[in-house]
């Protein structure tokens, strides 16, 4: 990659001294580095304060941390661990935190023994912190299996509980990566093999994952993890803005607008901050600064990036190419393109079909080839059903019932982009000319006022109903 096409070429324009972090922040070694990359909104600070108070009060609560993908559940947990290890905090120093990533035990046959191995590691960290590392070594050196060692470690703790001056907090993370049955089996194994009231057990989970669980799993979580902490939805724009400030001593510019971060990418990636952060880096790597002078304002740069971002999103298939034949069963007419636009104004499939027919007539009149045919154009039911099915599969549309469809949040973003000439030209460029006839592109290029067509159609429908 040439300098003019690399992310580094943006540094003098944005007043950056290095690339900000576009990934996870809990992998940083020092607490100061961690804090410089961890944006804590007021709601996060309030949640942390409440949890800190609960720990100071020595409340023996098993906690369920609930938050959307990328909301920062894992990062929030690691912030406590890093604070406990580096800040000499008198409250947190009384706790030993161990994070178990549940996907490590994703094995239908051996999950129980894998969980037990993790529990032994947790006991090892706890014994060491409480000055019982020799006892831990002595037990683990004995010739017995994993289960036997775990039983001995648990019993030794029970017998000498007063000599352990700290509390173990065992945290189950990444259960969302497992199917419901495996998540239940692993959570149940942790409870059976670590069923000690004085050991705190926490779990992180997504709301949608929780909704999909069986009744048995839901009852288990309600019983064993009754205290719920909801992680707030921190905005992507605030996260990247905080990290950009850490890469320059002066006044760095943020090339990403709030609209791009919290509307476009949030919709495309369904709120997943990790995926959206990766996309932000990819966008900046993909877009060369060209003739953007250093004197340009942050607003100008943000508008430039916002417009050009569609190139990256299309090339990486984050946004679908509606002109691709994958979405069309009829080769000559842009059903998906017009359908997405019309869905902004109606959800009724019958009305949408009428609007598509009106648009087809207008497009055909602009083409010498089709206008000479002298026929009335009408979109077949099967062609429309085909496009609807593909767009539903890709998360652009949602189908409520046989007679109604609607744009998803992702679909609304695509409708906004797809109405522009830039989207059309980029889509055309990415498709092999041999795959689509030029007659198709002639129809696509014809100007169609979707809002006007739908307004006329809806007005007629209303008048027809009243008459």
Question: Could you explain how this protein is built, in words?
Answer:
- By secondary structure, the protein is an alpha/beta fold.
- It has three domains: 40-230, P-loop containing nucleotide triphosphate hydrolases (Rossmann fold); 242-315, no CATH class; 325-466, no CATH class.
- The chain is 54% helix and 8% strand.
- It has helices at 11-14, 31-37, 42-56, 73-86, 111-129, 133-140, 146-159, 180-193, 207-212, 215-224, 236-244, 258-268, 273-286, 298-315, 335-342, 349-365, 368-371, 381-393, 409-418, 421-430, 438-445, 450-466, and strands at residues 63-66, 95-101, 167-173, 200-205, 227-230, 397-401, 404-407.
- β3 (167-173), α8 and β4 (200-205) form a beta-alpha-beta unit.
- α5 packs antiparallel against α6 (133-140), α5 packs across α8 (180-193) and α13 (273-286) packs across α14 (298-315).
How many strands, which pairing sense, and closed or not: the largest β-sheet? 5 strands, parallel
Percentage of residues in strands: 5-15%
In CATH, what is the class of the largest domain? Alpha Beta
Overall pLDDT metric:
88
CATH architecture of the largest domain: 3-Layer(aba) Sandwich
Number of β-strand runs: 7
Give a quick rundown of the structure.
The chain is an alpha/beta fold. The chain has helices at residues 11-14, 31-37, 42-56, 73-86, 111-129, 133-140, 146-159, 180-193, 207-212, 215-224, 236-244, 258-268, 273-286, 298-315, 335-342, 349-365, 368-371, 381-393, 409-418, 421-430, 438-445, 450-466; strands at 63-66, 95-101, 167-173, 200-205, 227-230, 397-401, 404-407. The protein folds into three domains: 40-230, P-loop containing nucleotide triphosphate hydrolases (Rossmann fold, 3-Layer(aba) Sandwich); 242-315, no CATH class; 325-466, no CATH class.
């Amino acid at each position: 990659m040439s300098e003019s096409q690399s992310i580094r070429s943006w540094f003098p324009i944005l007043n950056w001294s290095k690339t900000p972090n576009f990934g996870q922040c809990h992998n940083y070694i020092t607490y100061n580095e961690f804090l410089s990359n961890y944006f804590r909104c007021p709601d996060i600070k309030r949640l942390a304060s409440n949890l800190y108070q609960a720990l100071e009060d020595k409340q023996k609560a098993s906690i369920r941390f609930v938050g959307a993908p990328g909301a920062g559940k894992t990062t929030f947990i690691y912030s406590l661990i890093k604070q406990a290890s580096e800040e000499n905090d008198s409250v947190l120093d009384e706790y030993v935190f161990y994070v178990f990533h549940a996907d490590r035990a994703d094995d239908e046959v051996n999950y129980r023994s894998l969980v037990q191995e993790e529990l032994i590691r947790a006991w090892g960290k706890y014994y060491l912190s409480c000055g019982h590392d020799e006892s831990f070594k002595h037990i683990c050196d004995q010739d017995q299996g994993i289960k036997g060692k775990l039983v001995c470690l648990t019993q030794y703790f029970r017998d000498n509980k007063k000599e352990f001056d700290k509390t173990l907090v065992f945290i189950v993370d990444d259960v969302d990566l497992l199917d419901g049955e495996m998540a239940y089996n692993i959570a149940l194994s942790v409870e059976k093999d670590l069923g000690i009231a004085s050991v705190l057990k926490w779990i992180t989970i997504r709301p949608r994952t929780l909704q999909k669980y069986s009744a048995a799993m839901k009852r288990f979580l309600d019983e064993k993890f009754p205290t719920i902490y909801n992680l707030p939805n921190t905005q992507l724009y605030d996260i990247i803005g905080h990290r950009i400030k850490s890469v320059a001593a002066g006044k760095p510019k943020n090339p990403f607008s709030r609209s791009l971060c919290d509307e476009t990418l949030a919709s495309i990636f369904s709120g997943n901050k990790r995926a959206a952060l990766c996309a932000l880096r990819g966008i900046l790597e993909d877009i060369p600064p060209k003739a953007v002078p250093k004197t340009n304002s942050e607003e100008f740069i943000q508008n430039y990036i916002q417009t050009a971002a569609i190139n990256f999103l299309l090339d990486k298939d984050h946004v679908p190419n509606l002109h691709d034949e994958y979405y069309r069963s009829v080769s000559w007419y842009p059903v998906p393109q017009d359908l997405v636009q019309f869905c902004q104004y109606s959800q009724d499939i019958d009305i949408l079909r009428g609007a598509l027919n009106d648009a087809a007539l207008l497009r055909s009149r602009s083409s010498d080839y089709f206008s000479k045919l002298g026929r009335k154009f009408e979109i077949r039911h099967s062609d429309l059903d085909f496009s609807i099915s593909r767009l539903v599969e890709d998360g652009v549309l949602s189908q409520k019932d046989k007679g109604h469809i609607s744009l998803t949040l992702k679909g609304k973003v695509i409708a906004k982009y797809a109405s522009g000439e830039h989207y059309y030209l980029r889509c055309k460029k990415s498709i092999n000319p041999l795959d689509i006839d030029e007659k198709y592109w002639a129809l696509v290029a014809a100007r169609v006022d979707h809002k006007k067509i739908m307004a006329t159609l809806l007005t007629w429908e209303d008048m027809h109903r009243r008459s």
